[in-house]
Every structure is written in C-alpha cells, then in structure tokens.
Design a protein that fits this description.
heterodimer; A: 294 residues; mainly alpha; ABC transporter involved in vitamin B12 uptake, BtuC; two-stranded antiparallel sheet; two-stranded antiparallel ribbon; 12 helices; globular; B: 238 residues; alpha/beta; Rossmann fold; 4-stranded antiparallel sheet
C-alpha cells in the first residue's frame, strides 16, 4: 500500500511538471497555431537562472524566502524569454507554420547550447532547502516534500489559468480565439495582444517548471527542458489542443501510467506505454480527450 | 448623388493561389440596403471578406472616403464596419452573453438588440453551440447590431433557416437598415426584393450589373440572364 501511495504522489509530482510545460504549449497552439519547440528551453533557462540566484544567496536557498525567490526568478525568466521570442520572432511569422517550426527548433537548440556554454554540460546539484528533501508520512508512505511543492504549484497555476480564462476579458478573447481566431478579429478585437499574453503566461509557467523540475530531480542539466518537452507534447495531444483541463487530466494520467509501469513492469516500459496511449487516443479520439470534435 | 459610404475599385483577391476576384468595383449608398447578388461561387463572400481584410486583397476600398484597404481586420471593424459572416460563425463554446461581450464596443444600440431579439436575454447563459440555426443567426446579428456602425456587411443571413425564421431575420435587418447602410449578400430573392434599394450583380469574379433593385425585379428576362432564376412570388419575407 505504501508503495502505491509513494508511486502515486511521485507520479502526481511528475504530472505537475508535465502540466506546467503542457498548459503553455496547449494554449499557444490552441490560440496561435504555433508549435513552440523552444518551450523546453524556456524551462531550462528558467531553471538555471533560478539555480544561479539560489547559489549566490547569502544563506543559500535553504530558507523559505530564498526558495520563493528562486521560483519567482525562474518564472520571470521564462516570461521574459517568451515575451522576447514572441515579439521578435513569432510575431513576424504568423500563419507561416514551417518557418515557425524552424525558428523555434533553432531557438531551442541555440538556448541549450548557450546553457552548455555558460553553465557547463554536466548536471549540477540544486541548492534546495533542506525541508524539501525531508519526508512527510502519508498513509504509511514516506513522501519527499518536494513532490508536494510541485503538485501545489501546478494546482495553483491551473486555478490561476482557469480564473484568467473564465473571469477576464483576455480569457474571453483567448477562449474565443482558440475556437475561431479570424472571427475574433472580425469582431474588432486585436487578437495579437492575446497572443503575447498567452505566450508570456506559457513562458512563465515553463520557467516556474524549470525551478520545480530542478527541485524534483535535485539537479539542473541542460537537457532537462527537452526531456520534459517530449512528454508535454504528448500530454497536449492526449488532453486536446487548447484545453487546459485536458492538459491537466492528461498530465496526471501520463505521469501515473509511466510511474506505475516503470515500477511494476520493467523500467523504461512506462515510456513506451505513454507512446502507446498517445497512439490509442489518436486512433480513437484524434481531437484528444477534451478536444472539440469538428 | 451623395457620397457612397463604401466605394470599391478594382478589387482583386485570391485564396490559396486561386484568383477569385478580378477587378470588382461598386459603391454602397450611404443609406438603405445594397444587395450583392450572383450565382454560387462568383465571389460574393470573398468580396465581403476582402472588405474586412480577411483574405489577401489588392485594390482600393474607401469607407466614407478614407482608404481602408491596407488596414488590419480589427481596425476596419473598429472604424464601424459590422460584419455578419456566412454560416454565422458564433462561438459555440461561449455563452450567448459571452458572444455579445466579446464583440461589445460602445453598445449604444443594446436596446435595439433587446427589442429585436427578446429571446436572447432569456438564453444569455446558454452555450451558443446548443442554439438552433435561427437563434445562432440572432446572436451573430446581435453581436454586430449592439454597437453603432457606419456600415453593415451581412453575408447570407437567411441561409438554411426555416421560412418563419427567415422573415424574423428579414424584420431585424429592415429595422437595422433604418439607421445604418448595409451591404447584403443574399440568395433569397424575396428578402432582397423586400430590403434592397440598390443591387450589384457579380459573375465570375467581376461586377456585371449595377442598378436599382426594383428595375431588376421588374424585368424577368434580365433576372434570368443575370441570376439564372425566375423569381417566384415573395412569400417568406412578407
């Protein structure tokens, strides 16, 4: 029983990371029809900048304020990177999907290469506060506290996104734009502003995810963003492009499937099962679990 | 004659590399309804979309004398061009109220909308995707009519609707046209005969006839030649 609980909570923690990446990808694609392959780089750079700030804090990152500062710095880094990417690159390439893919893939590669150059290619241990490595007893299982931090952050982001989408004018524009972007402009709304908002929110969530992924893995490494990005894309497709609740549900489902299969069957089989789940969803419900049917 | 609210000169447009409009020129009078007619596939909807900047276009388009052919769609709309697209294009996953909120600019004509479509107030919280075709058309019209406009571009508002609803929609358009000039694309000639004062007829991406609606409808031979139809006695629109 305690193993099941441990696997479940750890899986939820991993799912939280998937969600932080997938939510942005999903909104960006849903609204802008942009496949942002640089999204993993937002996460990596956010994680590294947060990590660097934490390392240079007087008392390390072992205090609550130090840890919160790392999270904020990571989030802000992701947001700024996304803002610059949108304004300088993506905005010039609306409706040009091939070019967008080339540019975001290139940006992702370049960013990871820069991280390699600036911080080195080896993974480095993350200066996490000691309390995150301690465990809390839950139904007989000893669960590392960092899992709870990841889950809480993702739930907070989910709640924030739902409030944004359903209680604000930008949210209304985003939801309408996901459905029919041309018609939004034909009602006199400058949808490009919503594009920038969505891109920045996605980047912020990825940057936050970077610090949390470092916490979850106890290390930062240049490849951490891309490792998550692959699963995040799978989550987005399974959940339904443009659906935040779909991304949340699929993130949890994918992570739990992965964790349990890797533990109870063969390590590595979980990853294969995720791809199998993706194939099944595409065959049975190509618009994803929460996606619109045409 | 007074200055037209909209003047279009040598409008060219292509979609996915295919040439659809080949030098379209016409005016929309500053009052009343100008109907844009023609058989299927002659470029009427593309003309409407070109006016709004929804397709790539070249040529000169003036709204009250000012060029708008280089402007982005939302800016053209903010200048006061209300667009009701073919197939309504309401946001099915938004409620009726949200559909209207999204399009709200000055909302100075909200009273008119409530008077024309009392049903919508009762359905404010219903998802627009669950409405009937006629109700969706009311949403599409209300979205635009709630604001003060300088010109309405209305594309096939009665398409696929039951006769009773057709006459309701025609009533609403007639009310709206009392205060705003309208370019109306419409296949139902009874509705056209009721609403339109001027007509512009297109064929193969060009304008082939401009004139007064009544004269066109009084000449069966011309109607047959331009539109390929014998006009039946109007019923639905009356």
């Amino acid at each position: 029983m305690s193993t099941v609980v441990l696997l479940a909570v750890t899986g939820l923690g991993l799912g939280a990371l998937y969600f932080l990446v997938a939510s942005g990808l999903s909104l960006i694609y849903g609204l802008m029809r942009v496949l942002n392959f640089a999204h993993g780089a937002f996460l990596t750079v956010g994680g590294y900048v947060g990590f660097t700030v934490g390392k240079h804090l007087a008392h390390g990152a072992s205090s609550w304020p130090g840890f919160v500062l790392m999270l904020l710095v990571g989030t802000l880094t992701g947001a700024i990177l996304a803002l610059l990417t949108e304004l300088l690159l993506i905005r010039r390439l609306y409706e040009r999907e091939i070019e967008q893919v080339l540019v975001t893939v290139g940006l992702g590669l370049a960013a990871v290469a820069l991280v390699n150059g600036a911080w080195g290619s080896d993974s480095q241990s993350f200066p996490a506060p000691a309390w995150t490595a301690r465990t809390t007893s839950l139904l007989g299982a000893e669960i590392p506290n960092d899992r709870f931090v990841c889950i809480a952050a993702a739930v907070g982001v989910l709640a924030g996104l739902l409030i944004l989408l359903h209680r604000t004018r930008y949210g209304l524009i985003i939801r309408a734009g996901v459905e029919n972007r041309a018609m939004v402009t034909a009602l006199g709304v400058d949808v490009r502003r919503a594009f920038t908002v969505v891109f920045v929110i996605g980047g912020a969530a990825a940057g936050l995810g970077g610090v949390l992924a470092a916490l979850y893995n106890s290390t930062v490494s240049p490849g951490m963003g891309d490792a998550l990005l692959i699963y995040a894309f799978i989550v987005v497709v399974i959940g339904g492009l443009g659906s935040i609740l779909g991304s949340a549900a699929a993130a949890v489902g994918v992570a739990l499937l992965q964790q349990f299969t890797n533990y109870y069957a063969v390590t590595g089989l979980g990853d294969f099962m995720v791809v199998l789940a993706l194939a099944l969803v595409l065959l049975i419900r190509p618009t994803g679990l929460f996606g619109r049917t045409a | 004659m007074t200055e037209p609210v909209l003047s279009v000169r040598d409008l060219q447009a292509s979609i996915k590399g295919q040439h659809i409009l080949d030098g379209v020129s016409f005016d929309v009078a500053p009052t009343g309804v100008t109907a844009l007619l023609g058989r299927n596939g002659v470029g009427k909807t593309t003309t409407a979309k070109s006016l709004l900047g929804l397709v790539h276009r070249r040529g000169e388009i003036r709204l009250d004398g000012e060029r708008i052919d280089e402007e982005l769609t939302h800016r053209i709309v903010l200048r006061g061009v209300g667009y009701v697209p073919e197939d309504r294009e309401v946001f099915g996953r938004l409620t009726v109220a949200e559909n209207l909120d999204l399009a709200a600019r000055d909302r100075s004509e909200l009273d008119l909308v409530h008077r024309l479509f009392p049903e919508l107030a009762a359905r404010a919280r219903q998802l627009a995707g669950t409405l009937s075709g006629g109700q969706q058309q009311m949403v599409a019209l209300a979205r635009v009519l709630q604001n003060r406009n300088r010109l309405l571009v209305v594309d096939e508002p009665t398409k696929g609707l039951a006769p009773r609803v057709v006459s309701e929609v025609a009533d609403a358009l007639a009310s709206a046209a009392e205060s705003v000039p309208m370019l109306l694309i419409e296949q139902n000639l009874s509705v056209v005969a009721r609403l339109a004062r001027d007509v512009v007829v297109m064929a193969e991406g060009r304008v082939v006839h401009r004139g007064v609606a009544a004269e066109l409808f009084d000449s069966p031979a011309r109607l047959q030649a331009l539109l390929g139809v014998h006009r039946e006695e109007p019923e639905a629109a009356r």
